[in-house]
Amino acid sequence: LKRLAMANPYVAFTFKDEKRTLLQCAAQSLEDEGAALKRLGDIMGADFTENAVAIDLEQEDFRLTGFAGLPTLNRANAQYQFLFVNGRPVKDKILNHGVKVAYADYLARDRFPLVCLFLELKPEAVDMNVHPAKTEVRFREPGKVRSIIVSALKNALKQSGFRASTTVSDEALSPKALKPFRVPR
Predict the structure, then answer these.
(1) Strands 126-127 and 74-75: what pairing?
(2) How far apart are CA 39 and CA 8, in angstroms?
(3) What is the distance between the alpha carbons of residues 115 and 66, in angstroms, rounded to a whole number?
(4) DSSP states of 91-123 as a string?
(5) Alpha carbons 118 and 6: distance in angstroms, whole number
(6) Is 35 helix (H, G, I), strand (E, B) or coil?
(7) Confidence class of residue 173 from pLDDT cuts 50, 70 and 90?
(8) Alpha-carbon dihedral of residues 26, 13, 149, 75, nearest 10 degrees?
(9) Average pLDDT, the chain
């Protein structure tokens, strides 16, 4: 449900059980340029919206949009990596590897960036019928797709000026982190 909400920011989503609301996402305005990021914030949290860089690359018949977290905003697993092809949530080794390669110079091996990427391409350039659930895909030109992911992410991270996420700077400047300096006698 979260993935459907990410791909459709102009639609409201509410998911409840008997006792509480599990997911609440208001519909975003069609005129709002930041609608997609606001929706991602509803799902991935305020830390992501404060520490994400925009991705927008169009190359030949491919278009990659979305947001990628700064390298200092990372997790111990890939739970916050969301990838979409033609509006459909997918799990794909080519896309995952592209993200991993793009962040390789910035993250330790056991850390994972937060990303939400939307790849749009012609329907004949991708086979969505690899798996019955349609979550696995096969690209006609996998090398080109991987290259687009890597270059778009690397360019966005480079343009961010290598700034640290607010979560890291907040922790570094917290009173707990600031210990008094004592000169040894």
Answers:
(1) unpaired
(2) 9
(3) 8
(4) --HHHHHHHHHHHTTTS-TT-EE-EEEEEEE-G
(5) 10
(6) helix
(7) very low
(8) 90
(9) 88
Output Rg (C-alpha) for the chain, integer angstroms.
19
- For 93, the token pair is 């080794």
Q: Helix 93-103 vs helix 142-159: angle between axes, to the nearest 10 degrees?
A: 30
- Residue 94 structure tokens: 């080519």
DSSP structural state of residue 2: H
Task: Please provide the size of the chain in residues.
Answer: 185
Give the C-alpha distances (Å, rounded to integers) separating 147 from 97, 124, 129, 171, 184. 10, 19, 23, 35, 54
CB atoms within 10 A of CB 78: 15
Q: In this prediction, what percent of the chain has a pLDDT beyond 70?
A: 86
104-136 pLDDT, tens digit per residue, is: 999 998 999 999 999 999 999 998 877 777 788
How far is Cα 112 from Cα 163, in angstroms, rounded to an integer? 17
